[in-house]
Design a protein that fits this description.
Helices cover 26% and strands 45% of the residues. It is an alpha+beta fold. InterPro entries: LSM_dom_sf, YgdI/YgdR-like, YgdI/YgdR-like_SH3-like.
Length: 73
């Protein structure tokens, strides 16, 4: 019973943290629109932007390919 309560509590906390993060939309030079979960991290040393896509996969894109990045309402 205690394990079940702990799992339910941790699940609730994880969902509430995920729900609070805002999505961002990046438009690329090719016209693609990329939706990222949370704010993408720009690494000026490597010239890459790291983001988590809608399916939860970690991805990177070259900064030169990004035209605009806006916070989704």
């Amino acid at each position: 019973m205690k394990k079940l309560m702990a799992v339910l509590l941790l699940s609730g906390v994880a969902l509430s943290v995920t729900a609070c993060s805002s999505d961002y939309v990046m438009s690329t030079k090719t016209g693609d629109m990329i939706v990222a979960q949370g704010k993408p991290e720009v690494d000026k040393d490597t010239g890459m932007t790291r983001y988590t896509d809608e399916q939860g996969n970690e991805r990177q894109i070259n900064n030169d390919q990004i035209v605009e990045m806006i916070k989704k309402d």
